[in-house]
Amino acid sequence: MPSFIDRVVLHVAGGDGGNGCTSVHREKFKPLAGPDGGDGGHGGSVILVADPSVTTLLTYHRSPHRRAGNGTPGMGDWRRGTDGKDLILPVPEGTVVKDASGEVLADLVGAEASVVVAAGGTGGRGNFSLASARRRAPGFHLLGEPGQALDVTLELKTIADVALVGYPSAGKSSLIAAMSAARPKIAEYPFTTLVPNLGVVEAGSTRYTIADVPGLIPGASQGKGLGLEFLRHIERCAVIVHILDCATLESGRDPLSDMDAIEAELAAYAERLGDQESDPAVTGRVPLMERPRVAVLAKTDVPDAAELADFVREDLESRGMPVFAVSAVARTGLRPLSFALASLVDEARSSAPVTAAAAQAAAEAERPVIRPAAVGRRRPEPVAEVRYVTHPTEGRVYQVRGDKPERWVRQTDFSNDEAVGYLADRLAAAGVEDELVKAGAQAGDPVLIGALEGGVLFTWEPSLSTGPELLGARGTDLRVDPSTRRTNVERRAEYHERMDAKEAARAQLRAEAAEGLWTDAAWDEGDQR
């Protein structure tokens, strides 16, 4: 199992909101004292927080599925449900958060920087909060919303002041071990360093960090070697140090050609980043190819390497960069190099550009400005968009998409007719039915609210304005549940039908008595009267 992970896919889900409660308050001598159902608790959110004590994403590589706590349902006697607990996930400083499409959601630079990656669901309302002057005793509640669930990619970009770049086995690990307390693996074979190493250097009053980036080779920006995996760790560095191996025995290699090859890879990688990543107003950093360079001629303790270093020094200095000849083994030339790097780091820190976001945040923090919405200049925007689409199983349907209508559908308990009627009232009041009419929908047409998969499909019947006098029993709605109550015309017809049946029966009895089929003294006496 690797000990350093700088990229991981995290599956996060916010907690579900608790359902509301339908309850009627009861007291002595007051069996029906009004609704008292409480609201459900909100679900917890998943929050990423930059923590300086965390250096790797290994924890999330081993357990990538994370979920926040759910809210509890509401209860009677006006008791609200408990909110779900937020899930705080610490990540290293410099972590970039991206969604499934690759769009950057957040760049967590600086301690305590945070972002909510999966918001918890809202708790459902109880029947007490749904009561109004027109609906005094609701017989329904709203359901809690499910928490947001998505996959995010975490990429760690090391935050260091100085980046050491160079060919494999050029002496980067030896140099960082000699200048700091870092103890990277050092061996006499290529690609000894498999992960970036960080070291802290103190030069006078300046304290800065050095990153040992795994060795680069020609073609690293296209995926060769290990360079592509770790080139992003130099994006935030203020100074780039070329470690040039003066004691290499490979044919066709020398310090000048090595530098040209590494610079070509850096230029190719900077081009891949695009214009946005190289804009100082956005990133707050100098573009990668404009940052100061330092050339370090390594392994000068070898006699032939010392002669080669003296030979190429003038050519390197003509390129406008300081040159230092050092030996990590003999520990020569390290002190001047450390102070020179400290000077460049101080200069970079003092002249660091300010991002537009940081400038705006500072201005807002300095002086809050209240800007009320303009009156009479903006037209009300429709709450939903209606399109005529093809459903996989139902054919052509009218699809309604909008945050509010889809949220209202998720909150509705379709087993309760009164809740369905409340949903119809909300949709009509928000103007959804008006948008359906504009789209050409007619009574009886199929309407889908939500996505093609998972949306709610129903047959549309235009709502009629209703009042409290038309509401039925608790938990029912006359528009949803067809009424079986007889009308006055039906009552009169049934009454006359019964009277006609009784008169027919009496006539038959009189006819049988007249024929002498049977005689009843009581009947004769009554008939005579």
Please describe the structure with a list of short key phrases separated by commas or semicolons.
single chain; 529 residues; alpha/beta; Spo0b-associated Gtp-binding Protein, Chain: A; Rossmann fold; GMP Synthetase, Chain A, domain 3; 4 domains; 6-stranded mixed β-sheet; 5-stranded mixed β-sheet; 14 helices; elongated; GTPase Obg; OBG_GTPase
What does the model show?
Mg(2+) binds at residues 173, 193. Keywords: Cytoplasm, GTP-binding, Hydrolase, Magnesium, Metal-binding, Nucleotide-binding. One of its GO terms (cellular component) is cytoplasm. With 529 residues, the chain is α/β, with parallel strands linked by helices. The protein folds into four domains: 7-156, Spo0b-associated Gtp-binding Protein, Chain: A, CATH 2.70.210; 162-360, 3-Layer(aba) Sandwich (Rossmann fold); 385-460, GTP-binding protein OBG, C-terminal domain (GMP Synthetase, Chain A, domain 3); 484-513. It is built from 14 helices and 18 strands. It has helices spanning 58-62, 127-130, 172-179, 227-230, 255-277, 280-283, 303-317, 334-350, 356-366, 403-410, 417-429, 432-439, 488-514, 521-528; strands at residues 7-13, 46-50, 65-67, 87-91, 95-98, 104-108, 114-118, 149-156, 162-165, 197-203, 206-212, 239-245, 293-298, 323-325, 385-391, 395-401, 446-449, 456-459. The strands form four sheets. The protein has a six-stranded mixed β-sheet, with helices on both faces. Helix 7 links the parallel strand 13 (293-298) and strand 14 (323-325). The longest helix has 27 residues, at 488-514. The protein is elongated, with a radius of gyration of 39 Å. The N and C termini lie far apart (112 Å).
